[in-house]
Amino acid sequence: MIALNHYLVLSAILFAIGTAGVFVRRNLITILLSIEIMLNAVNLTFVAFGRALGAADGQIIVFFVMTVAAAEAAVGLAIVIALFRHRESLNPDSFTALKW
Amino acid sequence: MTLLVAQIVLTLFVFFMLLNSAAVMVYVERKVAAFLQQRLGPYRVGWQGVLQPLADIVKLLFKEELRPRAADAFLFALAPVISATCAFAAFAVVPFGAETTLGGWLPEPLRLQVSDVNVAILVVFAIASMSVYGIVLAGWSSNSKYSLLGGLRSSAQMISYELSYGLALASVLLLGQSMSLTDIVNLQSGTWFGFIPRWNVFFLPCGLIAFLIYMTAGIAETNRAPFDFPEAEQELVAGYHTEYSSMSFAMFFLAEYVNMVTVSAVATDLFLGGWHGPFLPESFGWIWFLVKVGAILFFYVWMRWTLPRYRYDQLMRFGWKVLLPVAVVNLLATAAGVLYFGL
Amino acid sequence: MGSDLTFYLFAAIAIAASLLVIAQRNPIYSVLLLIASFGALSGLYVLLDAPFVAVIQIIVYAGAIMVLFLFVVMLLNASHEETEYDERVHPLLQAGPMRFGAFLAAALMIELVWALMKGGGESGAFPGKAVSGVKEIGQLLFTDYAFPFEVTSILILVAMVGAVVLARRETHQ
Hints:
The complex is a heterotrimer.
Chain A: H1 4-24, H2 28-53, H3 57-87
Helix pairs in contact in A: 1-2, 2-3
Chain B: H1 2-36, H2 52-62, H3 73-90, H4 120-130, H5 132-141, H6 145-176, H7 181-186, E1 191-192, E2 196-197, H8 206-221, H9 246-271, H10 285-304, H11 312-341
Antiparallel strand pairs in B: 1-2
Helix pairs in contact in B: 1-9, 1-10, 2-9, 3-4, 3-5, 3-9, 4-6, 5-6, 6-8, 6-11, 8-9, 8-11, 9-10
Chain C: H1 2-23, H2 27-47, H3 51-76, H4 97-118, H5 134-143, H6 146-167
Helix pairs in contact in C: 1-2, 2-3
């Protein structure tokens, strides 16, 4: 019997995997992909709760989260392209020139 | 239990018929092209060349399977699989006949549709948007400049025309008040004034414009002329499938023909009344379905050998600056019509 | 029983694909594995009686956003970049801050899972009724959530303009 808890635990595991990707990987595009994993984990939580409460609100919020994720991916990738043109590198550690 | 067996048989039957339709389309294309160009086409292999597709398949099977050394092996092998899978999967939600009990054999009526979801239109659209990957991965993994250019151009074209495709589908959704293809077809049964069928294409002007937009976007989606610049033989060697040979090449062509059949089948269901027709009883509606799909496929082949090819920038300009605004205005007009005139 | 098995299957695919996404060196494989993960999530949405969200997930995420990622990876030729500290060591096992980051993420996961398994309630089955029709979603979207809906349209316009401006090549006069 699959209950709400199963979905929440799965979502927590996916979120943690996304977080690990953001912390560990040194490639800008993989970091953006990990952010997408985190957003998807949150989507799963919303839909699971929406089903548990018998309302369609969960699905509507997922709709908005997807829109925001699309906008964020577009702008994030544009920033990655602009950064790449400056330094020819996708390693976030090569953009530390302003640090003292 | 018999119903389960019947559904499995139906799935296998649909798969087999799609494979056959690709083979038939190969022959039909060559024959019609030949007659349009005032020559004979294949006529040696079998009576009037009917066994020509079989000869083609045997030839392709015996060719050597090449792979460039610097190509990414996994992606190179995966790309035709993605193309072919998406082409077949999109047909899974298309109904092609009324419910039938096969003359009393089955205990309850069997829908002639592999799987009946109530968001069928969106599923077709979703799978069409996945088929971009087959092409872009083929272009990238071949590690050759013609392939890469062809692959990127083709995928940019496909995602541009997907928008107009979706908006034309949305117009039909408004007219049909449901996302399930079976419901939309059933709303098109019957006639007005006794002789004009209630097909969506006759809902002037919104239905007709939606049909034209859908067909244009469908032709662009399947990379057929006059929108086939990415795989033009004269301009780009062969575009994204330059480096492919033997069965992988055959799978790309299979995918293209099955995509054509799917677009025609969905157009028939949405705009031309599906399996409803004047003289035959409901349970033989699939004959009308075949006739209508055949007519649209003939139109496809006719367009290819009649119109010149669009240049790539003309193609993209047309998709974004002409087709998309027309589709949006058509959607608004359909919405206004449904709301105020209760169409 | 059948739906239990499907849940575990989709969950396993989603977790395995996500783990491989963060473990791959080549960003193209990461993007493709993420698409596989999205497919599994789409299946989970169908199990949760949300077919509309499932199909929208494929259309928007797997069919549009990931194509954008793939184009950018191909444009930047990222698979041939030297982007990691040390080429011989696997990206996830690099020394230094990365190991600490991995430890933090693992700690987060253990904490979340423990909290969820321990907390009361919510271990029963889902209630019988589910609102999943497109009509109901549309009605809610355009009445209760009409304001966020309009705001997202402006958001997308802003994102479009921003992306074009940011990615534009600087023209030297």
